[in-house]
Amino acid sequence: MFGHRADGKRLSNIDPIVQFAPYIMPQRNDATNLMTEYLDYEPMAAYIRKRGKEGSKVSFMALMIAAYVRAISQYPELNRFIMNSQVFARNQIVVSLTVLRNSKDKDVMDEALIKMKFQPDATIDEVVDEIERNLKDATDEDADNGTVDFAAKLVHMRILVKIVVKLARLLDRYGLLPGWLYDISPFHCSMYITNIASIGMHSIYHHLYNFGNTSIFLAMGKFEKHVATGKNGVEVKNVVPLGVSMDERICGGAGYAQGMTLFKNCLMNPEVLEKRPEKVNLEVPMKQDKPKKAKGGSK
Fold first, then answer.
1. Which residue, of 114, 138, 183, 186, has the fewest CB within 10 Å?
2. What is the dihedral of CA 249, 87, 94, 163, to 10 degrees?
3. Burial profile 253-271: b = 16 or more Cβ within 10 angstroms, e = fewer
4. 152-200 per-position pLDDT tens digit
5. Reading across the β-sheet that carries 80-83, which strands appear in turn?
6. Where does the chain show beta strands of DSSP type E?
């Protein structure tokens, strides 16, 4: 409230046009821009093969996340969000991801939602470690998953669902949502990413949720072959299609262009993600989570 929230701080000394835009487009889906990026498959695949020989399991998903974290570190406006027609700078880099859970019933495809937090200077190895740690917990059929467990309990009280959601929207609007709900809500994040190639689908443009404050959604589709011109004339190249949905209100077009250019450059030269950036640009200080206590307590 009053410009401060658990997940960010209101910005006032920014471009007046950016401040004015949320009043013209009050809903996130009003302000969604869509584009498809066709990323050259080979540089990423070659890097993944090289790291695999070194004993590291780097994935296309990990590269996407690491590249976006790096883009935010240089262009922090990509980590803004809109709430109650105000522009906020997020105080953490949070990525939400939908994954398939292991199921004893092979005909059932259960999903789990996970949230991962990264420091702005994170390297590809730190991103891989964080993904692996979360995936291990989330894909276990018997493991606890805060988002899934909360939803499962709520739908059993159907008469209360609408009331709870409306109350959550109201509290979120004024920054009064309890911290534990921010922690389990996948809809409050810097970026939501999904790998629909894993279920054999082409790239899509995923909607931005009006609930929560996600400002960008990336959907990676299955690999395609495209005809392109190169040094040797016309050639067929493998590409990774990426459907991008973004809230245009958080910054100007130039900011988006610069951030996305860095994002693509990192994917075409993944080695740069092995080192920390020389400097990090921040709009607000990054919030530090309290270290979790070991199970059983300390002696």
1. 183
2. -100
3. eebbebbbebbbebbeebe
4. 565 666 677 788 888 999 999 999 988 888 888 999 999 999 998 888 8
5. 4-5, 8-10, 86-90, 80-83
6. 4-5, 8-10, 32-40, 80-83, 86-90, 93-100, 111-118, 191-195, 216-220, 224-230, 233-247
For residue 114, give the 3-state DSSP assignment.
strand
Residue 290 pLDDT more than 80?
A: no
Q: What are phi and psi of 83, to 5 degrees?
A: -145, 130
Phi-psi region of 84 (alpha: psi -120 to 50; beta: other; left: phi over 0): left
Number of CB atoms found within 10 A of residue 245's CB: 22
We find that the CATH architecture of domain 4-9+17-274 is 2-Layer Sandwich (3.30)
Both tokens assigned to 40 = 């050259």
**Structural tokens at position 148:** 């899934």
Q: Is the pLDDT of residue 240 over 70?
A: yes
One-letter amino acid identity for 17?
Answer: I
